[in-house]
Amino acid sequence: MFKKIEAFIRETYNCPKAFLPLHEPKFLGNELKYVTEAIESTFVSSVGKFVNQFEESLAEYTGAKRAVAISNGTSALHLAMKIVGVDQSSEVFMQPLSFVATANAAAYLLAKPHFIDVDLDTMSMSPEALKKRIEKSCHFTNNRLINRQSGRQIKACVPMHTFGHAARIDEICEICDYYNIAVIEDAAESLGTTFKNQHTGTFGTLGIYSFNGNKTITSGGGGAIVTNNEKLGTLAKHLSTTAKVPHAWEYKHDNLGYNYRMPNLNAALLCAQMEMLPSFLENKNNTALKYKDFFEDFEDIIYKVAPAHCNSNYWLNAIQLKDNSTKDLFLKEMNENGVMTRPIWQLLNTLPMYDQCPSGDLDTSIFLADRIVNIPSSVIL
Ligand SMILES: Cc1ncc(COP(=O)(O)O)c(C=O)c1O
After folding, report:
1. What is the pLDDT of residues 289-313, one digit of tens each?
2. CA 36, 40, 46: angle at the middle one, nearest 5?
3. Would you say 179 and 134 are in contact if contact means Cβ atoms under 8 Å apart?
């Protein structure tokens, strides 16, 4: 069975023998031209025309009022949580099925992650699980949601749009609005994905993207914060630029700021990648259709299609195998044969830094962690 899958993937990627990566960047447009222009301008650090150009193009593309270029997705998450007031007395709702950065960002602020289960189809935070956990373990007083056991306030909720498939973000926002919890969308993987025709990242108080080398488009390393709140957009820009008060020569900083701005050199690369995004998305959707058709013939394998109301960017294609031992066999055989495949992340609540953190029932996360693998997903030339 695995041989047939390998042959199909190799045929799809027109790669009969060589190593086949999971997701490699493609530089097919103005990348070299813009990077050269940035170098020749000598503006290679966090000031320069490409930073502004990128911020404008991301805001226009996503429909967000403001977009702020950040050095990477992890620092964007850290800053977003800081902005909504996450601190050492807080807990942050998040799914255990995510990249470690989601939990690390809360831990940088000495807050505790509080884990909420995911849905089977979206692989992202489940609104039912969120509601159930709140009703079972929290009380709501003076507009504050408090974990009854720890006494900590839930300040933020960070749903993550797994592999580009959208969470049921409207329902999550509705629950969080009611309990006065800020929603920060971890849209690191889902640039270009829409839910009910609105871009993921733009539903919550703040949203973040990653432009790491393995993402749909890349700046080498990079990230962004988007928001529809002008004041928070201005604050994000200020705090990411060492909170420096603009002045021709004085060094005046009016807050604890961070050096989290994206350098102009990276923004130059990213501006060229932004131009390619629509064609990359179309290409990835075509590949997803091929995978979907192919896996329909397998009784024990489920190809994870875009859930309801979601136009997915299909960042990483995912299949659900029969059980944990099949998953291990699949990974071994594919990787030994040069077809790069990866398991979904180890659940965050099982990592040594987070294994004492509060959590609801995580049955679906455990089920998926045992079965999901990612298969090659690059843009096909
Ligand atoms: C879900 C998620 N959150 C956050 C990040 C962090 O982004 P970065 O690698 O740009 O720091 C990533 C990816 O790398 C991610 O997949």
Report:
1. 999 999 999 999 999 999 999 999 9
2. 85
3. yes
DSSP letters, 242-302, are TTBPP-SS---B-S---B-BPPHHHHHHHHHHHHHHHHHHHHHHHHHHHHHHHHTT-TT-E
Q: Write out the residue range of the structural domain in which residue 245 sits.
A: 31-274
Encoded amino acid at 341, one letter: T
Per-residue tokens: 236: 């994000």
Q: Is residue 305 part of a domain?
A: no
Is residue 223 lining ligand 1, measured as CB closer than 6 Å? yes
User: In one letter, which amino acid is 148?
Assistant: R
95 CA from centroid of ligand 1 (Å) = 14
Q: What is the largest CA-CA distance in the chain?
A: 68
| Dist. CA 354–CA 332, nearest whole Å | 28
Residue 176 lies in a domain: yes
> H-type helices in 169-229, by residue range?
169-178
Ligand 1 neighbourhood includes 186 CB (under 6 angstroms): yes
CATH at 152: 3.40.640.10
Residue 101 alpha carbon to ligand 1 centre in Å = 6
State the pLDDT at residue 46: 84
Q: What is the residue-averaged pLDDT of the chain? A: 97
Q: What is the radius of gyration, based on Cα positions, of the chain?
A: 21
Nearest atom in ligand 1 to the alpha carbon of residue 105 is: 4
For residue 101, the ligand 1 atom closest to its alpha carbon is 4
Summarize pLDDT for 202-223 with one digit per residue, the tens.
999 999 999 999 999 999 999 9
